[in-house]
Amino acid sequence: MFIFDAHLDLSMNALEWNRDLTWTVEEIRKSEVGMTDKPDREKNTVSLDTMRKGNIGICVATQIARYVKKGSTLPGWNSPQQAWAQTQGQLAWYKEMEKIGEMTPITNLQQLNKHLALWKNPDLKSPIGYILSLEGADSIVTIDHLEKSHEQGLRAIGPAHYGPGTYAHGTDSVGGIGIKGKELLKKIHELNLILDATHLCDISFWETMKIYEGPVWASHNNCRKFVNHNRQYSDEQIKELISRNAVIGIALDAWMMVPNWIRGKSTPENMGVSLMQMIDNIDHICQLSGNTLHVGIGTDLDGAFGKEQCPTDIDTIADLQKIPQMLSDKGYHEQDINNIMHQNFISFLQSVWTN
Ligand SMILES: [Zn+2]
Question: How far is the CA of 162 from the centre of ligand 1 (A)?
Answer without folding.
Answer: 8
